[in-house]
Amino acid sequence: MRVVIAELVALLLLLSACASDGEGEAQPTQPGANATTTVLTSTTTTSAAPVIRESASRTIVVADTDRTYELLIPASVDSSVPAPLVFNLHGIWDSASAQMSRSGFSSKAESEGIVLVHPDAIAGVWDLATTADINFFTEIIDDVSTLTAIDPDRVYAIGFSQGGAFATYLACHLPDRIAAVASVASLVHHDAPACPEHSPGRILTFAGETDTTVSIDEGLMFASPDPDPPGPLADETAAWATTNGCGSEPLETSLPEGVVRSDYECANGSALVVYVHPGGHWWPQGAFGLDVNTIIWDFLNQYSSPLSSG
Prior knowledge:
alpha/beta; ten-stranded mixed β-sheet; 25% strand; single chain; Rossmann fold
Protein backbone atom coordinates (compact mmCIF):
# COMPACT_ATOMS: atom_id res chain seq x y z
CA MET A 1 0.00 0.00 0.00
CA ARG A 2 2.85 2.45 0.82
CA VAL A 3 4.38 1.82 -2.62
CA VAL A 4 1.01 2.51 -4.30
CA ILE A 5 0.56 5.76 -2.35
CA ALA A 6 4.08 6.90 -3.26
CA GLU A 7 3.40 6.23 -6.94
CA LEU A 8 0.08 8.15 -6.79
CA VAL A 9 1.72 11.16 -5.13
CA ALA A 10 4.45 11.15 -7.81
CA LEU A 11 1.77 11.05 -10.53
CA LEU A 12 -0.09 14.00 -8.98
CA LEU A 13 3.13 16.03 -8.92
CA LEU A 14 3.84 15.21 -12.57
CA LEU A 15 0.32 16.23 -13.63
CA SER A 16 0.64 19.49 -11.72
CA ALA A 17 3.93 20.33 -13.42
CA CYS A 18 2.55 19.54 -16.87
CA ALA A 19 -0.83 21.32 -16.56
CA SER A 20 -1.74 23.46 -19.57
CA ASP A 21 -1.95 27.23 -19.09
CA GLY A 22 -4.60 27.79 -21.78
CA GLU A 23 -8.19 26.69 -21.53
CA GLY A 24 -9.03 23.94 -23.97
CA GLU A 25 -5.42 23.46 -25.13
CA ALA A 26 -5.10 20.03 -23.52
CA GLN A 27 -7.46 17.17 -24.27
CA PRO A 28 -9.72 16.82 -21.23
CA THR A 29 -10.09 13.51 -19.49
CA GLN A 30 -13.75 12.67 -19.69
CA PRO A 31 -15.28 10.70 -16.83
CA GLY A 32 -16.20 7.09 -17.48
CA ALA A 33 -19.79 5.99 -17.36
CA ASN A 34 -19.01 3.55 -14.55
CA ALA A 35 -16.81 5.67 -12.28
CA THR A 36 -15.98 3.93 -9.04
CA THR A 37 -15.12 5.12 -5.56
CA THR A 38 -11.54 4.67 -4.37
CA VAL A 39 -10.36 5.32 -0.82
CA LEU A 40 -6.71 6.13 -0.17
CA THR A 41 -5.06 6.43 3.23
CA SER A 42 -1.61 7.57 4.22
CA THR A 43 0.28 8.14 7.46
CA THR A 44 3.17 10.04 5.89
CA THR A 45 3.31 13.76 5.24
CA THR A 46 4.71 15.72 2.32
CA SER A 47 5.05 19.42 1.67
CA ALA A 48 4.32 18.94 -2.03
CA ALA A 49 0.94 17.18 -1.87
CA PRO A 50 -1.96 16.95 0.56
CA VAL A 51 -2.20 14.08 3.01
CA ILE A 52 -5.32 12.36 1.71
CA ARG A 53 -7.78 10.68 4.01
CA GLU A 54 -10.28 9.97 1.25
CA SER A 55 -10.07 10.63 -2.47
CA ALA A 56 -13.03 9.41 -4.46
CA SER A 57 -14.46 9.54 -7.96
CA ARG A 58 -18.18 9.52 -7.30
CA THR A 59 -21.18 9.06 -9.57
CA ILE A 60 -24.65 10.31 -8.69
CA VAL A 61 -27.83 10.24 -10.76
CA VAL A 62 -29.40 13.63 -11.48
CA ALA A 63 -32.52 13.77 -13.66
CA ASP A 64 -31.86 10.22 -14.88
CA THR A 65 -28.31 11.13 -15.93
CA ASP A 66 -25.08 9.83 -14.41
CA ARG A 67 -23.02 12.79 -13.18
CA THR A 68 -19.50 12.54 -11.79
CA TYR A 69 -17.30 14.50 -9.43
CA GLU A 70 -13.97 14.15 -7.67
CA LEU A 71 -14.08 14.37 -3.88
CA LEU A 72 -11.14 15.15 -1.62
CA ILE A 73 -11.48 14.86 2.15
CA PRO A 74 -8.03 15.74 3.53
CA ALA A 75 -6.66 14.10 6.64
CA SER A 76 -6.89 17.50 8.35
CA VAL A 77 -10.71 17.25 8.27
CA ASP A 78 -12.29 15.76 11.40
CA SER A 79 -15.38 13.93 10.13
CA SER A 80 -17.24 14.68 13.37
CA VAL A 81 -16.75 18.47 13.06
CA PRO A 82 -18.65 20.30 10.27
CA ALA A 83 -16.12 21.44 7.66
CA PRO A 84 -16.31 24.05 4.91
CA LEU A 85 -17.00 22.77 1.39
CA VAL A 86 -15.45 24.33 -1.72
CA PHE A 87 -16.51 23.58 -5.30
CA ASN A 88 -13.62 24.06 -7.77
CA LEU A 89 -14.95 24.29 -11.35
CA HIS A 90 -13.07 23.62 -14.57
CA GLY A 91 -13.15 25.73 -17.71
CA ILE A 92 -15.07 24.97 -20.89
CA TRP A 93 -14.17 21.69 -22.69
CA ASP A 94 -12.00 20.77 -19.73
CA SER A 95 -12.38 18.35 -16.82
CA ALA A 96 -12.33 17.99 -13.05
CA SER A 97 -8.91 16.34 -13.11
CA ALA A 98 -7.49 19.15 -15.26
CA GLN A 99 -8.79 21.80 -12.86
CA MET A 100 -7.33 19.89 -9.93
CA SER A 101 -3.89 20.13 -11.54
CA ARG A 102 -4.35 23.65 -12.89
CA SER A 103 -5.34 25.32 -9.61
CA GLY A 104 -3.36 23.34 -7.05
CA PHE A 105 -6.08 24.14 -4.52
CA SER A 106 -5.83 20.67 -2.95
CA SER A 107 -2.84 21.80 -0.88
CA LYS A 108 -4.89 24.70 0.49
CA ALA A 109 -7.69 22.26 1.31
CA GLU A 110 -5.27 20.15 3.35
CA SER A 111 -3.76 23.05 5.27
CA GLU A 112 -7.13 24.66 6.05
CA GLY A 113 -9.30 21.58 6.62
CA ILE A 114 -11.53 22.07 3.55
CA VAL A 115 -13.64 19.40 1.88
CA LEU A 116 -12.95 19.94 -1.82
CA VAL A 117 -15.14 18.96 -4.79
CA HIS A 118 -14.13 19.06 -8.46
CA PRO A 119 -17.30 18.38 -10.53
CA ASP A 120 -17.42 17.37 -14.21
CA ALA A 121 -19.67 19.24 -16.63
CA ILE A 122 -21.47 17.24 -19.31
CA ALA A 123 -19.17 17.19 -22.37
CA GLY A 124 -16.99 19.73 -20.54
CA VAL A 125 -19.53 22.57 -20.80
CA TRP A 126 -21.41 24.11 -17.88
CA ASP A 127 -25.09 24.81 -18.53
CA LEU A 128 -25.77 28.50 -17.92
CA ALA A 129 -29.07 28.43 -19.80
CA THR A 130 -31.12 26.21 -17.46
CA THR A 131 -31.07 25.03 -13.86
CA ALA A 132 -29.90 21.50 -14.74
CA ASP A 133 -26.40 22.00 -13.36
CA ILE A 134 -27.74 23.95 -10.40
CA ASN A 135 -29.62 20.77 -9.45
CA PHE A 136 -26.40 18.79 -9.90
CA PHE A 137 -24.66 20.94 -7.30
CA THR A 138 -27.43 20.64 -4.74
CA GLU A 139 -27.28 16.86 -5.17
CA ILE A 140 -23.50 16.92 -4.67
CA ILE A 141 -23.90 18.82 -1.39
CA ASP A 142 -26.40 16.26 -0.19
CA ASP A 143 -24.20 13.35 -1.31
CA VAL A 144 -21.04 14.68 0.37
CA SER A 145 -23.04 15.28 3.55
CA THR A 146 -23.65 11.53 3.79
CA LEU A 147 -19.88 10.91 3.88
CA THR A 148 -18.57 13.58 6.24
CA ALA A 149 -19.88 16.48 8.30
CA ILE A 150 -20.36 19.64 6.20
CA ASP A 151 -21.10 23.11 7.55
CA PRO A 152 -24.14 24.11 5.46
CA ASP A 153 -23.38 27.79 6.04
CA ARG A 154 -19.83 27.53 4.67
CA VAL A 155 -20.30 26.26 1.13
CA TYR A 156 -18.27 28.16 -1.50
CA ALA A 157 -17.59 28.00 -5.24
CA ILE A 158 -14.47 28.91 -7.20
CA GLY A 159 -13.67 28.33 -10.85
CA PHE A 160 -11.58 29.03 -13.92
CA SER A 161 -12.94 30.72 -17.07
CA GLN A 162 -16.41 29.29 -17.79
CA GLY A 163 -16.13 27.56 -14.41
CA GLY A 164 -15.67 30.98 -12.82
CA ALA A 165 -18.72 32.25 -14.68
CA PHE A 166 -20.67 29.28 -13.39
CA ALA A 167 -19.46 29.92 -9.83
CA THR A 168 -21.17 33.32 -9.93
CA TYR A 169 -24.21 31.68 -11.55
CA LEU A 170 -24.37 29.34 -8.54
CA ALA A 171 -24.14 32.30 -6.17
CA CYS A 172 -27.19 34.00 -7.61
CA HIS A 173 -29.28 30.84 -8.06
CA LEU A 174 -28.41 29.32 -4.68
CA PRO A 175 -28.13 32.40 -2.44
CA ASP A 176 -29.30 30.34 0.54
CA ARG A 177 -26.53 27.73 0.08
CA ILE A 178 -23.49 29.49 -1.45
CA ALA A 179 -21.78 31.90 0.95
CA ALA A 180 -19.17 33.41 -1.43
CA VAL A 181 -17.47 32.78 -4.78
CA ALA A 182 -14.23 33.46 -6.63
CA SER A 183 -13.78 33.50 -10.41
CA VAL A 184 -10.47 33.38 -12.27
CA ALA A 185 -10.22 34.62 -15.87
CA SER A 186 -13.94 35.36 -16.29
CA LEU A 187 -16.47 37.61 -14.58
CA VAL A 188 -20.11 37.47 -15.65
CA HIS A 189 -23.10 39.32 -14.21
CA HIS A 190 -25.69 36.97 -15.79
CA ASP A 191 -28.26 39.07 -17.59
CA ALA A 192 -29.65 36.38 -19.91
CA PRO A 193 -30.99 34.40 -18.26
CA ALA A 194 -30.93 36.82 -15.39
CA CYS A 195 -30.25 35.79 -11.83
CA PRO A 196 -33.42 35.77 -9.75
CA GLU A 197 -33.94 39.43 -8.87
CA HIS A 198 -30.22 39.91 -9.63
CA SER A 199 -29.29 38.53 -6.25
CA PRO A 200 -26.33 40.30 -4.62
CA GLY A 201 -23.25 38.21 -3.94
CA ARG A 202 -19.78 38.12 -2.46
CA ILE A 203 -17.55 38.12 -5.51
CA LEU A 204 -13.76 37.93 -5.91
CA THR A 205 -12.30 37.87 -9.41
CA PHE A 206 -8.91 37.82 -11.15
CA ALA A 207 -8.40 39.16 -14.69
CA GLY A 208 -5.29 39.23 -16.90
CA GLU A 209 -4.33 42.26 -18.95
CA THR A 210 -2.92 40.06 -21.74
CA ASP A 211 -5.79 37.56 -21.73
CA THR A 212 -6.72 36.92 -25.37
CA THR A 213 -9.53 34.48 -24.53
CA VAL A 214 -11.57 36.71 -22.22
CA SER A 215 -10.22 40.14 -23.06
CA ILE A 216 -10.44 42.81 -20.37
CA ASP A 217 -11.49 45.35 -23.01
CA GLU A 218 -13.69 43.22 -25.29
CA GLY A 219 -14.91 40.22 -23.31
CA LEU A 220 -15.07 36.69 -24.70
CA MET A 221 -13.14 36.40 -27.95
CA PHE A 222 -14.71 33.23 -29.44
CA ALA A 223 -18.17 31.84 -30.10
CA SER A 224 -19.72 30.46 -26.93
CA PRO A 225 -22.61 28.14 -26.09
CA ASP A 226 -23.46 30.44 -23.18
CA PRO A 227 -26.49 32.71 -23.63
CA ASP A 228 -24.68 35.53 -21.83
CA PRO A 229 -20.89 35.28 -22.33
CA PRO A 230 -18.57 37.63 -20.44
CA GLY A 231 -18.31 41.17 -21.74
CA PRO A 232 -15.64 43.79 -21.00
CA LEU A 233 -14.45 43.64 -17.41
CA ALA A 234 -15.54 47.23 -16.72
CA ASP A 235 -19.13 46.43 -17.78
CA GLU A 236 -19.37 43.21 -15.75
CA THR A 237 -17.82 44.86 -12.69
CA ALA A 238 -20.17 47.85 -12.93
CA ALA A 239 -23.18 45.53 -13.16
CA TRP A 240 -22.12 43.61 -10.07
CA ALA A 241 -21.41 46.88 -8.24
CA THR A 242 -24.98 48.00 -8.99
CA THR A 243 -26.47 44.66 -7.92
CA ASN A 244 -24.43 44.65 -4.71
CA GLY A 245 -25.21 48.27 -3.88
CA CYS A 246 -21.52 49.20 -4.02
CA GLY A 247 -20.03 52.64 -4.28
CA SER A 248 -18.97 53.59 -7.79
CA GLU A 249 -15.36 54.32 -6.87
CA PRO A 250 -13.39 51.38 -5.43
CA LEU A 251 -10.34 51.63 -3.19
CA GLU A 252 -7.47 50.80 -5.53
CA THR A 253 -4.23 49.34 -4.23
CA SER A 254 -1.18 49.04 -6.46
CA LEU A 255 0.73 45.86 -5.63
CA PRO A 256 4.18 44.75 -6.81
CA GLU A 257 4.77 43.50 -10.37
CA GLY A 258 1.95 45.49 -11.94
CA VAL A 259 -0.98 44.01 -9.99
CA VAL A 260 -3.89 46.28 -9.01
CA ARG A 261 -6.51 45.32 -6.41
CA SER A 262 -9.86 47.13 -6.33
CA ASP A 263 -12.06 46.85 -3.23
CA TYR A 264 -15.65 48.04 -3.48
CA GLU A 265 -17.67 49.14 -0.47
CA CYS A 266 -20.93 47.25 -0.85
CA ALA A 267 -24.26 47.08 0.98
CA ASN A 268 -26.02 44.44 3.06
CA GLY A 269 -23.08 42.09 3.52
CA SER A 270 -22.26 41.69 -0.18
CA ALA A 271 -18.71 42.18 -1.52
CA LEU A 272 -16.80 42.83 -4.73
CA VAL A 273 -13.01 42.57 -5.05
CA VAL A 274 -11.20 42.70 -8.41
CA TYR A 275 -7.55 41.81 -9.08
CA VAL A 276 -6.01 42.79 -12.42
CA HIS A 277 -2.60 41.28 -13.21
CA PRO A 278 -0.29 41.46 -16.26
CA GLY A 279 -0.82 37.81 -17.25
CA GLY A 280 -3.07 35.92 -19.62
CA HIS A 281 -5.84 33.32 -19.54
CA TRP A 282 -4.56 31.12 -16.75
CA TRP A 283 -4.68 30.52 -13.02
CA PRO A 284 -1.92 32.89 -11.83
CA GLN A 285 -0.91 31.01 -8.68
CA GLY A 286 2.60 32.14 -7.75
CA ALA A 287 2.86 34.65 -10.62
CA PHE A 288 3.44 38.37 -10.05
CA GLY A 289 3.91 37.71 -6.34
CA LEU A 290 0.32 36.47 -6.02
CA ASP A 291 -0.55 33.56 -3.76
CA VAL A 292 -3.91 33.28 -5.49
CA ASN A 293 -5.13 30.28 -3.54
CA THR A 294 -4.46 31.97 -0.21
CA ILE A 295 -6.13 35.17 -1.42
CA ILE A 296 -9.16 33.15 -2.52
CA TRP A 297 -9.45 31.25 0.74
CA ASP A 298 -8.94 34.36 2.90
CA PHE A 299 -11.77 36.03 0.97
CA LEU A 300 -14.16 33.07 1.18
CA ASN A 301 -13.37 32.36 4.81
CA GLN A 302 -14.63 35.80 5.88
CA TYR A 303 -18.19 34.63 5.28
CA SER A 304 -19.71 32.06 7.61
CA SER A 305 -23.25 32.17 6.25
CA PRO A 306 -25.03 32.75 2.92
CA LEU A 307 -26.45 36.20 2.18
CA SER A 308 -29.94 34.74 1.96
CA SER A 309 -31.52 32.45 4.54
CA GLY A 310 -33.75 30.87 1.89
